Amino acid sequence: xxxxxxxxxxxxxxxxxxxxxxxxxxxxxxxxxxxxxxxxxxxxxxxxxxxxxxxxxxxxxxxxxxxxxxxxxxxxxxxxxxxxxxxxxxxxxxxxxxxxxxxxxxxxxxxxxxxxxxxxxxxxxxxxxxxxxxxxxxxxxxxxxxxxxxxxxxxxxxxxxxxxxxxxxxxxxxxxxxxxxxxxxxxxxxxxxxxxxxxxxxxxxxxxxxxxxxxxxxxxxxxxxxxxxxxxxxxxxxxxxxxxxxxxxxxxxxxxxxxxxxxxxxxxxxxxxxxxxxxxxxxxxxxxxxxxxxxxxxxxxxxxxxxxxxxxxxxxxxxxxxxxxxxxxxxxxxxxxxxxxxxxxxxxxxxxxxxxxxxxxxxxxxxxxxxxxxxxxxxxxxxxxxxxxxxxxxxxxxxxxxxxxxxxxxxxxxxxxxxxxxxx
Length: 424
Prior knowledge:
This protein is mostly helical. The protein has 3 domains: 18-289, no CATH class; 300-360, no CATH class; 365-423, no CATH class. The protein has 13 helices and 4 strands. The strands form 2 sheets. It has a two-stranded antiparallel ribbon. A hairpin with a 7-residue loop joins strand 2 (407-408) and strand 3. Helix 2 (61-81) packs antiparallel against helix 3 and helix 8 runs antiparallel to helix 9.
């Protein structure tokens, strides 16, 4: 008895299964947001007890708050819209882990160091506090490894490295959890500690911590590998991540320079903004939001940045130079410098924009040059067929359409096709 060919049909997901990932994602986001006032309450308790050395909301708390909120929000949007993409869930986990580490720290400090015995399970909160930072590193590493496609890069032994990157922090968590508590809980006995294996566990923890930290650097390098081998849509999606990485690197260098020069700056807010940039860029890359506007954004940002530097430097030079002759408080110098900058703004903007497009937005620069050359030939050409062919060639080079046709309707006559249709 022979059976005929069987066809397997996959039914569309039911409305119930479609809203379940969204509900789960926004529930995790709500837990992350609700954890922030808990941290503030624990910090208030520590300050009331006169333990300012144990407070949670220090000067660097802004970066952690903005980073966790940014990661959780972008992760909730990604997980609700693309539930099968792992990066959204990893971003949610990253934000929740940062907040959970803050809650565990405050709970353990108040329950063990300020009011011992008042909070149940404070010793286990201290045990979690000793290892709570470790899961953050593999989350960040796998976010970079799986962006933007949701799968590992092709070739190069990335699967083996993914297994190592997942196993190393797990071993680090186990080894550190079995060690005695470090400062400031060294006077409290760890109920999970195995004192007989202290030295082997310390060696394992040291090695696995190095591998865990190295995992973030290797994951960042995977984006470079992807960018080199990517083409088309994937390369355009990686442009967003590359832009966020470059901006973050510039801001970090600026912070280092300001700190070395002793200049007071909102460093904490700058770090927080940097921690928000990467999740936003990853979300735009995965959701494919306004991908092809990136070249324009980059060119405009660079152009107006250079224009600000040039005009600001020129204004300062005029005010300082003529101020030495006419007096620094002379209103004539300020008015003259302002008028000079206003007059030079538009010519300088056009020249700077052309120079920037030549390097950062080459497609727009080439299109502008092509249209400019066509306009020059248009004044001299009188043959209609030649003009039609030339116009279609310009449109094809600048806009790259699938089909190109040209219709011309003479007065009181039907439309006449003057150009052949080009199909790709």
